[in-house]
Here is the input.
Amino acid sequence: MAEHSGGGRGESAGDKAREEFFSEAQEIVDGLSRDLLALDDVCRRGGSDAELVNDVFRAVHTLKGLSGLFGAAMMSGLSHELENLLDDLRLGRIELTPQVLDLLFQSVELYGSILTAAKGDGPEPAAEVKALLAALGQVAQQRGGGGGSVIAQYELDPGLLGVLTEYEEHRLRTNLQAGLSLYRMRVQFQLATIDSALDDLKAKTRPHGEIITFLPTGEGGDAESVELEILVASREGLSVLGAAVAGPNVTIEEVRRRDAAPPLKESMRPPRPTMSEMPPPLPSFAPPAAMGTGIPEAIETDDYTEGTRTSRPPPGGSQTGIPAAAHSLQPPLFPPSQPPGGPQHGPREQQQRELTLRSVTQTVRVDIRKLDHLMNIVGELAIVRSAVSRLTERVRLDAEMRELATSLTRLHRSFDRHLAQMQNGILEVRMVPLGQVFDKLARIVRQISREHDKQVNLVVTGAETEIDKLIVEELSDPLMHMIRNAIDHGIEDRDERMRVQKPAVGTIALNAFQKGNHVVIEVEDDGKGMDPAAILAAAIKRGLVTEAEAREMSTKDVLALAFQPGFTTRDEATSLSGRGVGMDIVQTNIAKLGGVVDITSDVGIGTKMTITLPITLAIISVLIVEVAGRTFCMPLASVEEAIVFEESMVRTFEGREVMTQRGATLPLARLGKVFQLEGHRAGVWFNEDAKTPVPPPVRSTRPKSYVVIATVADRRVGFVVDRLVGQQDIVIKALGRSLKKVRGFAGATELGDQRVGLVLDAAALIAEVLAGEGGRQQPVGMSGEVVPRRNGERALLGPGERGDNIGGRGGGGAPPRGGFS
Amino acid sequence: MRGLSRRIEGRSAMQRADEIGKRAEYLAFTLGQEAYAIEIGNIVEILKPLPITEVPRADPDVVGVMSVRGRLVAVLDLKRRFRLTRTFTMDRKSRILLVDAATEEIGLLVDEVLQVYRLSEAEIEPPTVLGTEQAPHVVGIGRPVGGQVLMLLDLAPLFSE
Here is the structure.
């Protein structure tokens, strides 16, 4: 990664605020998406979750507020309509159908494109927003009634019913319809302590039920105390709930159901008008006209989560009918005109405020470039540390300074430890859970599977696995392509699945886990698998391989063809995939991150693609090796082991060097030869004395060489080097644009003494060696070939991969596990 | 660059008065026997040679990569680029001009840095005086009063490849 100077660029306050807006909005949209997925899940299991709907509602409400502040008109318009829809949802005026969920998911996508457009990275999705708004309008017209008859069956004081907010009424109805019992508590509160006492009571009640509402009774209070009537819906019996809330000033009773209401009586009570009978819902900007009908205004808290918002009054007349009719049946507990005291919404507001404050203060958004900058400073400190270490050694040699040396060593050790902690700390800050990108994918799976009319279940494990933020950013596109492919090419349609006796719903598993210094992500489907014969046929048809080449290829090589640019088995592209772009991009993108992609597939059973990635791009441990006087760094994550090399170990096999290691064939590559180093130029031009540089002496007779065995995924190559220098943690930096095309290096680092050490790209070098420099991609070498390509070299790839040539037969047994080259 | 311009600021009042005229400032340096100059705005810093690490497989005119206060900088051997000499040399007078290329800073290895010239339009000849077939990076011939002949370079074509 390139180095960035730590923030010298002066941003105006406005820019900064806009940045904040974008990132905050993005965060809210991400949260929204998560909630919707959870809701989708609940919904599919046939349930509902009022709290989730509320969360979604809150998110949209906040977005509306934010976008209003920043003049993002399109966003605020969309939010406004969504808010209406969600309000209808949480009040039960419309049902949460898959269609409604679709609209909500679409809105998440649209928020995404609106934000991108606002940043100037894309076109404004004006048409899409318009379409969605129209669709939202249609849904709004389908509002159905909630029916109040359930409530009517309970011996509830109509005066009380009269002052319920629409939301409270909806919750009451839902709970009663679900068969819960209703309890009425009367509690005396001291005015001085009412806030905390009420919170206490709420906490006690929560495990057992839901508090529908609380209102002052207007009785039993005096100057210092107030009595509240609290309605609680609970599954539990009176004794349980009573025990939970028991206190000196608490009385609790069950609100009984009226005995099977005689039809006559029922007819005397005008049933609650259903929504369909009501006048069309008021436009949301209508003045709160219904407010004054004897309902105490104080009930209308501005707490949008629980109370009815003033901008959207309850549909007219709904609250006036019942009290009027019911008054004659039961004397009111308290006159409706009694102004309730303020306390009942005080605690709510306070709670709300505390919640928001907390969420604001506990997280900080940091530009990743600032972390890069800090990381560079740590890198510099590491260099200082090694210089101090050398000095300490020198001091130690002086007999007179022994005491000083001891203290210096102690200090140095402490410095060392703290530096390591700091390094880890910064690395940790850079780490984010993969869940960030998985959430996006879950949305895509839902969308694609609906578009394609295939039922797909996404099973995610390991979403908490952490990886460098920069890697996460780059992962979403490749993963999206892989999942599209899995749905489009992998999962069969329903009829086909039934025919082969698979579950009708396809499964895509997205698994992530940490493996040493790597993170492994698997995308696995239970679809039809990849047929090597079909792939080969398609590849030959598209001229990617010749028939002669095809006969030489192992199953693994054939599957790897899917990563070739322009490869597709489809004759016609679908909207999803099949255009022949995609999988090669997947490989390119993953390779850029220093990772590899492997495919395994069983025909009829499914396909598994495995991505192996380094955990971080910033700091890595390397093994420093020396070849022909030059120093190179091999990422330790890729080093399996290093052993002493003897020329006698080498066998040549069709012109390629291999050795046997632990009973397995290990392809060898002499790093000096790979890089054409022997007798070439000097490695480092030292110029401390400003003299013409002397190339470091190239040892003609090597007393000892070593084989560094490097592995990436399941590919192994032994690199022959002259000397092992040691192990070091380094800050890896990208080579500039002018050196980007040079293959084989992942970057470079400062090794101390101002010397730069090149960091080897193990994955690329291994692939290069195994491919025998491939023929498809010529290395940007200084001259000539690196390793001559020979036919039949595939047979060298290792045990278990041999003799798997399917080219001629076109059959394909069980493909071997592992990668491609 | 700041140090350099300060030095220029410190020069005589007469010379400073010259700035009012239409003059551009060029830094002159040598490559082998020939003198070249680059417009001073392109130059970020003039460095004494640092250890440079060879990059295998890089283009032949890339000397290698060095670290300038923690930043990696690729160093180009201009002599090799201009095919002036086949052997690469670096000695006490050698300098690395750190210049702003399109997206990164690049070091240019030169044999010796001469001085800064202010050239008026009258002191610059078009490159065509050397013939019609001139490389795109040569934008003119500078002939400062009392100075030597300078090949004026434009950096953009050098890095566009």
